[in-house]
Amino acid sequence: MPAMTSTAAVEPLFLRACRGERTERTPIWMMRQAGRYLPSYRAVRSKASFLEMCRTPELACEVTLQPIDQFGFDAAILFSDILVTLPPMGLEVAFPEKGPVIAEPVRDRAAIDRLVVPDPVAELPYVMEAVRQIRAGLGGRAPLIGFAGAPFTLVTYAVEGGGSKDYVNTKQLLFGDPRAAHALLEKMADTVAAYLAAQVEAGAQAVQLFDSWAGILSPRDFEEYALRWAKHVIAKLRAHPGVAAARVPIIYFVNGCAPYLDSYATSGADMLGVDWRIDLATVRARVGAKVALQGNLDPGALFLEPDALRVRVEDVLAQGGGVGHVFNLGHGVTPPTNPEHVRVMVETVKARHWSHAA
Amino acid sequence: MPAMTSTAAVEPLFLRACRGERTERTPIWMMRQAGRYLPSYRAVRSKASFLEMCRTPELACEVTLQPIDQFGFDAAILFSDILVTLPPMGLEVAFPEKGPVIAEPVRDRAAIDRLVVPDPVAELPYVMEAVRQIRAGLGGRAPLIGFAGAPFTLVTYAVEGGGSKDYVNTKQLLFGDPRAAHALLEKMADTVAAYLAAQVEAGAQAVQLFDSWAGILSPRDFEEYALRWAKHVIAKLRAHPGVAAARVPIIYFVNGCAPYLDSYATSGADMLGVDWRIDLATVRARVGAKVALQGNLDPGALFLEPDALRVRVEDVLAQGGGVGHVFNLGHGVTPPTNPEHVRVMVETVKARHWSHAA
Fold it and tell me: What number of helices (H) and strands (E) belong to chain B?
């Protein structure tokens, strides 16, 4: 297929792996790579609140580029937060140290009906400007990933008013008033689809949908409440001319995906994120060869001594096999992580060259 | 086999199901059935702290019997907390409303070495007395389940100082100093084994080991840090004369078991607890017929209207098939649950009679 060969010759490793291609080495990036484990990030953060960093394109750009400059990751990801779409919908969010707080959570039909589906370009101009500045700052060194919260995960925050231990309020909405739950999910999905399309128009070269809390559902409810609306977002994105023209890869990440692999494989995404609780090889065996996989080193493994860390990194690489695989952690890197261990991980991944038969 | 037939004729449904037998109907109990969803529990709780309730046999007995009296569950479970074993080891625990707090968490080898393996009969006499009073209060209406935290889950509390979002301190111990982690796990395991044996000697007719947080581990770490030490407890219990003589069923419950089914099946327990994130039929297909299963309705499903609730209860019953199955929730019942919906669940389970071919 000459067309594919030609594409493979010019596209970055990361984008080729997203498309399921064989790559001469496995590309790597890391969830929360622009984060508190980095001294240079903490230096910026000491002068601005988390929200100010999100809302100031120059600062968002600066911290987005830091891990690219320092470790040579194969992809950059926009510095932002999945909850930035909530205020334009009508839900104010605060970000104290202990985690996000929504003072007036959404728990009934009236509150859901008051929410709007905003125009993301008009309401979140700072995000689009950050995307443009990051693309310029990258200068082609690495592709830029845009992202958003998946509809179900955004609903958990909106309903609980923040994180939760048992998600009782969410369950009360889903099971006590399923129609209202779906009305809220639809507003989230339409907002997220428009928001990700706007990021692509501003320059994002791939997009990731984070379903951080979809793992609290039974298999049937995962399909009904999480997957259904993630598919809605993915289908809308596929139909967007800019996304379609650039063949922008869509990544869907469900944290705690192990129970749902059969349905997860049907999401329509180009690549599925895999958390650390399940072996990548198990996931590949279940989802088949049609979808790329991203993951899945336990973020805690970065606390291992370098030699033991390398063994685990090699194991994930071997399971990925250099075909349709992007190396990543199975969840975000944690603040006490030693940056030198991150360097060991990146160097181990980059040292592994695949000699695929043509 | 006349012996089995004879046993089946005299033993309670719950114990027979634990042993993997066919039962004419599926027995039911519910995790946290003595809990805040019950007005009669809240009445007791309004006059005593949680810890006072645990430490006062008369109160523990009273609330243990409430759900038996009110709903006719097929098993009672000791009212207590998995953390009661920590203070005799040398770790003080407080129970404010927002969850348990260990003011001086265990994070290094020196702190681990200071912990002792206590004599549970001498150190936790109030638990043994509660068991005796409950057995007397039950008068044979239902068997009594004793319980303890599994070693890994107790380690997470001891190390984090309470609950956690990302278990970073636990991961730092496991990966930063694996030998120290195993030393701590061994002390927990020896404590728990002795504690459960003492509960059996006091009258508990089955025991459940709660591994509430084993689901934060990768498959290899689940085997290394959670399953290995749960097996240690189970093997010690099997070797205990009182446990062996009475053939006391051992139940092992891992919350979030879906990624580990193959190794979970090797625990040595008579029955495995299954959380709501995976279908019971999937678990049965993977673990085979040699182990009984307990679960697994989503506690959130109790927020459904009665008709929809009945459909979900029937679905779990059908997946269990009336062979080696104890109906339960997939996790503890939540405080806002309507007790009348609990009644609907119990009545639905009890109305389902199995006409097994002989």
Answer: 19, 7
Which CATH fold topology does B2-351 show?
TIM Barrel (3.20.20)
What confidence score (pLDDT) does residue A293 get? 98
Closest CA to A246 of A209, A198, A291, A203: A203
Helix axes B168-176, B151-160, angle to 10 degrees: 110
Q: How much is the pLDDT for B8?
A: 42
Query: What span, in angstroms and rounded, lies between the C-alpha atoms of A184 and A89?
Result: 11
- Enumerate the residues of chain B whose CB falls inside 8 A of the CB of residue A254: none
Nearest-by-CA chain B residue for A257: B259
Search chain B and give the residue with CA nearest A302.
B175
Distance between A256 CA and the closest CA of chain B, angstroms: 9
The angle at the Cα of A328, spanning A325 to A333, to the nearest 5 degrees, equals 175
User: Which pLDDT score, from 0 to 100, does residue B6 have?
Assistant: 44
CA B220 to centroid of chain Cα atoms: 23
Q: Which of A215, A279, A303 lies closest to B175 in CB terms? A: A303
Direct distance between the N- and C-terminal alpha carbons of chain A, in angstroms, rounded to an integer: 12
The SS3 assignment for B64 reads helix
> What is residue A215's three-state secondary structure?
helix
Which of A36, A98, A171 should one mutate to test binding to chain B, selecting the residue with the greatest count of B CBs within 10 A?
Answer: A171
Q: Is A240 left (phi over 0), alpha (psi -120 to 50) or beta?
A: beta
Residues in A touching B221 (Cβ below 8 Å): 298
* pLDDT, tens only, B161-197: 999 989 999 999 999 999 999 999 999 999 999 999 9
Whether pLDDT at A6 is above 80: no
DSSP-H helix ranges across chain A: 2-10, 13-18, 39-45, 50-55, 57-71, 86-89, 109-114, 120-123, 125-138, 151-160, 168-176, 178-202, 219-221, 228-238, 241-245, 261-264, 280-287, 306-320, 339-351
> Which residues in A lie closer than 8 A to residue B97 (C-beta atoms)?
none
User: Is there a contact between A193 and A149 (Cβ–Cβ < 8 Å)?
Assistant: no
Q: Give me the helix-helix angle, B168-176 and B178-202, nearest 10°.
A: 110
Q: Is A303 on the interface with B (CB under 8 A)?
A: yes
Q: What is the pLDDT of residues B72-116, one digit of tens each?
A: 999 999 999 999 999 999 999 999 988 999 999 999 999 999 999
Helix, strand or coil for residue A155? helix
Triad A260, A187, B312: Cα angle to 5°: 40
Spans of all domains in chain A: 2-351
Tokens 């080495």, residue located: A25
What does the alpha-carbon distance between residue B347 and residue B358 come to, in Å, rounded to a whole number?
A: 26
Nearest chain A alpha carbon to B308? A175
Q: Quick: pLDDT tens for A164-212.
A: 989 999 999 999 999 999 999 999 999 999 999 999 999 999 999 999 9
